[in-house]
Amino acid sequence: MTVAVITGAGVVSAFGIGVQAFFDGLAEGGSAIGPIGSFDASSFPTRFAGEVPTDIASMAETFRNEHLSGGDTHLQIDAFRDRKVVFGLLAALEAWNGAQCAQREQEAALSIALGLEQAFLEDFAPIFSSGRIDWKAESDIAGANIRIRSHVGLCADLLGKLLVLRGPTFVNASACAAGGLAVAHAASLIQRGAASIVLCGGADSMVNPLGMGGMTRLGAPSPRNEPDACRPFDRRRDGLVIGEGAAMFIVESEERALRRGVTPLARILGWGSTQDAYRVTAPRPDGSAARNAMLRALSRAALQPEAVGYINAHGTGTQLNDVAEAQAICGAFGRHTDSLPVSSIKGAVGHLMAASGAIELAACLMPFQRNLLPGTAHHREKDPLCEINVIGEQPIEANIDITLSNSFGFGGQNASVILGRYK
Amino acid sequence: MRAAVVGHAWRTPLGSSVDEVVRRLLIGERAAQRNPRFNAETYACTVAAAIDVEPSPSRHQRFLRRMGLLAMETAAEALAASGLHGSDRVGLFFGYGGLRAYWNDMMPALEKQNEQGDDSWERGFKLFHPFWMLQHLSNNAHALTAEALSARGEGATFGGANAGAQALASAIRALQIGAVDAALVVGYDTLIEPETLVELAARRAAATRDVTELAAPYDQAADGFVPGEAAVALVLQRPEDVRDVPVAYVEAANGADGEKGEPNASTIANVVRGLARGDEIVDGAGRADTTLDLQERSAIAELLGSRAPLCCIMGATGQLGAAAPLVQTIALAALLRRQTAPPIARLRDVVEGPLRPLMKAESIDARAAIAISTGAPGLVGVVRVEVG
Fold this sequence. Notes:
The complex is a heterodimer of chains A (423) and B (388). Chain A is an alpha/beta fold and 423 residues long.
């Protein structure tokens, strides 16, 4: 059977730009959660986030100067208003270059997880009328901008153009499970020979007034505006913290990678997905569907539970989710649970929503790269309802060969992906 | 790999039953009318092909709008028609065209904001309904359908103009490898939204004439397509697991080429090449753009021959976005069973070129069809439908 391998990775996170900044931040056991600086959030109940520490305008300018030429105004103007698009482009370039991709790799397919369509308030200004949008007033100008400059596939569209990719495009919109599913889809394309190389991953940002406003009204974020707002699996946890960023990967067949002289970073061994079929607003309490996603991933990888050496949990830091995930892990791993290290990076970089599964899969590369398992920032008090072996705030040294990443989306879409050390 | 279609349901601009839609297709009827969804007098495109039924009252109205609710209805009907029930072995795959943000919902939050962006919570964001975010969640119809039908197997939600083809291909793959025993595939999309009509006008993709002056796809006078909408669901199983004769067998593939507008003909041909056997009739993408239409015909003729019959379901239903491949599957299955290909609705003056655009219903021997759908940016979906 064709083996899918990861040959390049790129990350943009609250720790900074690049995989090394991400690994360094996790290796230090720190947290990058802080006050929101990209817009005036002072009047919002939620004022903390895992914000990418950069001026998006200067980042966009750098990107334009370094990577773009010619007169494609669509590329030069429209992309850079949307933070997630810029993050996705930067992560993709890092992955592309890291995998030593060149012209021959432009046959790549694209499987990308993207967050909600972004609305830009300035686009609406010309067509506000008596508390409603009057589309007729400026239908040829502002309306076109709203639709064309912010559609959900914009990042995928631009990535395809930027890297001159010729393969099919898949835009996964499965909420917080989308990042994991996008990479699983890429591995599936490789395994069945439908593609020889795929650029995949996720990008998202809800650090904007609409995103923060909507999430706050939903009651998902922690009510505390503190650096430790998100405390996964901690007895005192009280909600998530929103993050932003991107993680992208080059996935190809092992044979193709070796033929072009590239050493893989990891094997993608298995994946599984399920639906809770329970409620939009809450996970299935017994975690059975999430358990089944992990079991399917193990089955696809032809692995016994004991083979897994580390789980990067979805671990949102909300009361219900963490208990359900702990139940799911116990159900899938049985007696192995006690000796199976589990951590969540959401206390460190926040919840990247559609990109969370992708960046957490990137965290699953750290044990292979640095022989370190990421810690769980702000996890200090064990919750008796979460009977799993949670790694504390500091990373731990370990030489393990198999990692598993969980992504459980709003509405109960579950995804688990298993990586193997490349030897 | 192909899958057997064992259940289906739809809401289309030509009707909600297969018999009604097929009857109207065969007499060359077209669903286009003056936009019935909202006043479009000042828009470049004033016509639309709309579904003329509303969703039944549902407790899910607090999370879902009209098209999502119709999608849920079709999913339930399709599963019931298949005789199957939800379980851990039933997968759920959704494709939808793109988020419809219902911008007017945002007005309470936006109308008192100022340019400085200060005090914005008090100026309006606190007025959002607690479920506002859920109403705009990309997978809310998926989640609610999973819950309603106990579909707990593998699944994903895809977005974009060819998301229906993506959902179909993923479902078929999940069946092939044994990850699920049945797959419910749901597509829904509407192009009859203000911002979408504006976008289509900016791309000069939609028709600009009045209903009485509209020209069909593949006609010399074509000046753009009619925006349509549909909600549709299919239930698939592995062919070897089906005891009775299935509705049809379906295969799906998709592609993209990064074009800002419609995909290149070569991209369409590359995707078709992966599915075609050479014995199919063609259901064209029907962009109603004389250049694109001719390029499509030339590219497909190289694969299926210059005399292959060409019909165009979306010439009758309007363009259906992500829902198109699923609607094409159901319609073509019914037509192939009747061994009749429908005319291209209101086709009067065919552009000279390869393939054989049908001006009237025609008896056919073919047992299979290739159906093409496209959309921006540069997206292609193709299904191959075969009856036993």
